[in-house]
Specification:
Layout lengths: L19 H23 L3 H7 L6 H19 L10 H19 L1 H7 L3 H12 L15 H16 L1 H9 L4 H9 L10 H23 L6 H12 L17 H15 L2 H9 L9 H23 L5 H16 L14 H13 L12 H20 L7 E3 L2 E3 L3 H30 L7 H12 L15 H15 L3 H13 L1
Antiparallel strand pairs: 1-2
Length: about 500
């Protein structure tokens, strides 16, 4: 029998083995340090905005972010490297910590630059990195452009993924980086290595952003607005540069131009890779893309019908709101041209269901992901087929056109269904806690469920429940829900359970 070599305690004579926990930390720390150093580097880009718009007074508060990331990065990168293989649970915990630290450090410019309470600043930063789009800023219009660009930049980097973003910049591969990449909820492997995959994703992302800016400029809005809006649209984030959001422009043309950009962010990036490098247009051959368009059509029809009949809106206005809000909801972007609080409960719950499903796996969108929905439907058909043919017959489960034999169907589905169950549990628990922490104050249960689903799926559509006046406990609950939802919960649980074992 082949015995696997112990990677955690290398067998070198005369060298004392490190304790397991320290050994694992030393294996992974330099890679995490490199990630923070690259974030620190990119965090300097808002300085250019400050100089361009004459906001020199905000330079020092803005410098707190790159300084914080740099200090943590230098400390971790200086940990002596230990060769070995980081356990999956360690990689999961590390990714959860990276995202939490990004929010805690990324909050500093809001606190020092706007005198925002630190809790509100962490909320704003977590909403940015996770691409949620909830905001607690007192007035977006009165906020310096440098800070607004920092908000947009965090959504842009977070949409691609902090780890994927920095792996592309670092240009070095390895098992530890691969595990960090996969632990972030990314599954794209259309290139031989995780580095080349991340680099190609980055190129695609830049091209989509540039094309989006060109498209949005056709609506006649200023270049500054267009750049920021597209950065937060292609990342399916939803931050805007005005307090009124997209409604500030009162432009049906702008809304319709944003629809294809939101959809582009929610489609699998693999489709763009195949189109550019393989010259294969497979939009209508990809099942996630087909399901996305089917749900947009069905959701738009249901919401538009509700708005036209139950809410008695004029048909043209009902269609305008129905289409934009449906696409914004299912792509998890969070822009809104209507107030869901004025809608009936049934309409709100249709939109909440679309938000919970979310966009495609391998995109910037959040939610449960269309890939898991497809796998669940395939599993259902497989079960009924086995019932018909008998349990003794070997019935393969076909996924992505390939048969999966023996015990793998149960394994594949259990992984996917675990995330679905955890999502639903998180929404249920968070809703119950909110009902106790923050009295409803004019908001019914459906609206609070809507708000929690919006946070869990990294959407940002709101009925107005999330605002600066809610209690700090409720704000921290939303911070945790946004954090866990963006990472698909498992890394956060790995971190919590790992920390609990050491107490």
């Amino acid at each position: 029998m082949h015995h696997r070599k112990n990677h955690f305690f290398p067998e070198h004579p005369g060298r004392k083995a490190l304790p397991a926990a320290h050994s694992q930390f030393a294996i992974i720390a330099p890679d995490i340090g490199l990630i923070f150093l690259f974030i620190a580097l990119v965090s300097c880009s808002p300085f250019l905005v400050a100089l361009w718009y004459g906001e020199e007074g905000i330079l020092l508060p803005m410098a707190s972010a790159p300084a914080g990331f740099g200090i943590v990065g230098v400390w971790l990168a200086g940990v002596p490297k230990v060769e070995g293989e980081a356990r999956l649970s360690v990689a999961l915990s590390a990714v959860a910590l990276i995202w939490l630290a990004a929010a805690l450090i990324g909050a500093l410019p809001y606190t020092f630059g706007l005198n925002l309470p630190y809790t509100d600043s962490v909320f704003e930063a977590m909403s940015g990195w996770t691409g949620t789009g909830f905001s607690l800023l007192p007035s977006v219009d009165a906020t310096p452009k440098t800070i607004l660009f920092w908000r947009s930049l965090t959504q842009w980097m977070g949409g691609l993924g902090i780890v994927a973003f920095t792996i592309a910049l670092a240009g070095r591969s390895g098992l530890t980086r691969f595990r960090l990449y996969r632990s972030e909820g990314r599954s794209e492997t259309f290139m031989p290595s995780v580095v080349t995959t991340a680099v190609e994703m980055w190129r695609i992302y830049l091209v989509l952003t540039a094309l989006g800016v060109g498209l949005v400029l056709l609506s006649g809005i200023p270049l500054w607005d267009a750049v920021n809006i597209v950065m937060t649209t292609i990342s399916t984030g939803g931050f805007a540069v005005h307090s009124a959001g997209i409604l500030y422009y009162d432009s049906p043309l702008l809304e319709m131009l944003l629809v294809p950009i939101m959809i582009a962010g929610a489609l699998p990036f693999k489709l763009y890779f195949l189109l550019y490098y393989k010259k294969r247009f497979q939009l209508f051959a990809d099942r996630q893309a087909i399901l996305l368009f089917a749900l947009i059509i069905a959701g738009c029809a249901a919401i538009t019908l509700d708005l036209a009949t139950v809410s008695a809106l004029p048909p043209a206005e009902a269609l305008r709101e129905g289409l934009f809000m449906t696409v914004s909801g299912i792509t998890c972007t969070g822009f809104q041209n209507a107030d869901p609080k004025t809608w009936y409960g049934s309409t709100v719950m249709v939109l909440a269901a679309l938000m919970l499903v979310g966009g495609s796996a391998g995109s910037t969108a959040g939610g449960i992901k269309l890939g898991r929905v497809i796998l669940a439907l395939e599993m259902l058909r497989w079960w009924f087929k086995r019932l018909h043919t008998g349990w003794r017959a070997i019935t393969p489960l076909r996924h992505d056109g390939r048969p999966i034999l023996e015990h793998l169907p149960e394994y594949e589905v259990s992984k996917s269904m675990l995330v679905v169950v955890l999502f639903v549990l998180m929404v249920a628990i968070a809703t119950l806690l909110l009902l106790h922490l923050a009295p409803q104050g004019g908001f019914d249960s459906a609206e609070i469920i809507f708000e929690v689903v919006s946070a869990a799926s990294s959407v940002g559509l709101s009925t107005g429940f999330v605002n600066p006046a809610i209690c700090p406990a409720a704000k921290w609950l939303f911070i945790i829900v946004m954090w866990a939802g963006r990472l698909e919960i498992v890394p956060v649980l790995a971190l919590v359970f790992g920390a609990a074992r050491r107490l």
